[in-house]
Design goal:
alpha+beta; single chain; elongated; 2 helices; 6-stranded mixed sheet
């Protein structure tokens, strides 16, 4: 099973690999946080039944990009847009690998303002309802007749 924490870990790894040295905060940004940095928040999660053993999972994350600010607490919006585009390019192929799975992802720019930019990440995948092993008896033997009359 894939958890939202598994996805957060992968997002964190992608950001850290492309923005070395920039802190990545998860679900909580401290009062006097460092800039440039990133904040990953789990915004919403839903599970819908698909079959007896499968669920469809949708997980939404909000990724906030922070860059340096001036004395008026404003950023260079062109530089912020460059960071936002670079982050969105990390998800350009439409999926990320989480463990042995390729999870479908959609990235949308939510907003850009004088302080930060936000990117919405939506992950969609199918997963097992539980970790319990299926104990249904398997078919032992099949006999077929392919002769035509």
């Amino acid at each position: 099973m894939v958890t939202s924490n598994d996805i957060i870990t992968k997002i964190n790894q992608l950001i850290a690999a492309n923005f070395a040295g920039n802190p990545v905060y998860i679900n909580l940004c401290p009062k006097d946080f460092s800039r440039p940095s990133f904040l990953i928040e789990c915004a919403k999660m839903s599970r819908q039944p698909v079959s007896r053993t499968t669920v469809s999972v949708t997980v939404d994350f909000m990724l906030t990009c922070f860059i340096a600010v001036d004395n008026y607490y404003h950023t260079d919006t062109a530089a912020l847009l460059t960071v936002q585009n670079t982050v969105m390019d990390l998800f350009r192929k439409g999926y990320i690998n989480v463990g042995d799975r390729a999870i479908k992802v959609k990235a949308d720019s939510e907003e850009i303002n004088f302080e930060c930019s936000r990117i919405s990440l939506k992950f969609e995948y199918f997963d097992d309802r539980s970790d319990a092993e299926d104990t249904t008896l398997l078919m032992g033997e099949v006999t077929t007749n392919t002769n035509l009359l």
